[in-house]
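Researcher: I'd like a structural prediction for the single chain below. Treat it as a standalone chain; there are no partners to consider.
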Amino acid sequence: MQAAPPGLRLRPLRVTELLDTVFTLYRRNFWLFVAVIAVVEVPYQLVSLLLRLAVAPKGLTTSPGHTLTSAQLAHELHLVVGELVVAGVLVLITAVVVVPLQTAAFTKAVSDRFLDRATAPGICYRFAVRRWGALVVLGLIFLGLVLGATVVVGAVVALLGVVAGTAGVLLGIVLGLAALVAGLVAYARVVISTPSLVLESLRPWPAIRRSWELTADNVGRAFGVVISLILVEFLIGLVLGTLVGVIAAPLGSNSAGGVAVQEVGSLVIAILSAPILATGLTLFYFDLRVRKEAFDLELLARQVLEGPAPG
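Model: Treating it as a single chain, here is the predicted structure.
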């Protein structure tokens, strides 16, 4: 068993050092991380492929200048509805099953390997099942907060435009920008809610409060970490996505072969890129605990294994 990357027990890490630790951990545990992601991602992509193949290759084509008959129009409408239903089903599966289970299992895998504990996909997913419901609720809370804030800000901006005309519109734009900045700051403060919930066995609201406490005075670092991780994931996805597009283009995007290549490509991209952000946020959680609570890795390992001390 290889030792976990050193660093946090000695000193807090700069953003660049944390990123280096992410890649070191990823490289040393590549096949474990791939297996953990694949356990959920492979079945999901197979379901996605079958559903897309059921609706994608049956569209009608017409010559220029010809209009669709009522029967053909009804057929096209049926296909569009089918595609929307498929998209809705996939979004639901992703939000309720794939993301929560995969996130909990992968956070467990990263934690175990960083703390130099033996682990396996089965261990991680048995742990993930116990945290699945809480993660679904956490996601719903975040969704509700975002939608609620968007509706309130949108209503205020619209009201200002109606009541105060041009001046109100300008004021509304300023208010919208201020709300956006506030939203980004709030995101930075709750960005490690998921590792807190998973690794400390917290309920959703306590996990949000825990993240808020740990990220106090570290908003700038949180932005730096998240932006860097997202940028790395984006670049990996961009390169691989371009390659998949080049391979799929000669087959036709709506053909069975083109759809299959796109789905396989999506699977590969998800497996290779998904570990970056999750690994980075888990390590950032540990880094903040070392900074704020002066913990060493041995104490962190015991707390993650045994759960939080009774309050």
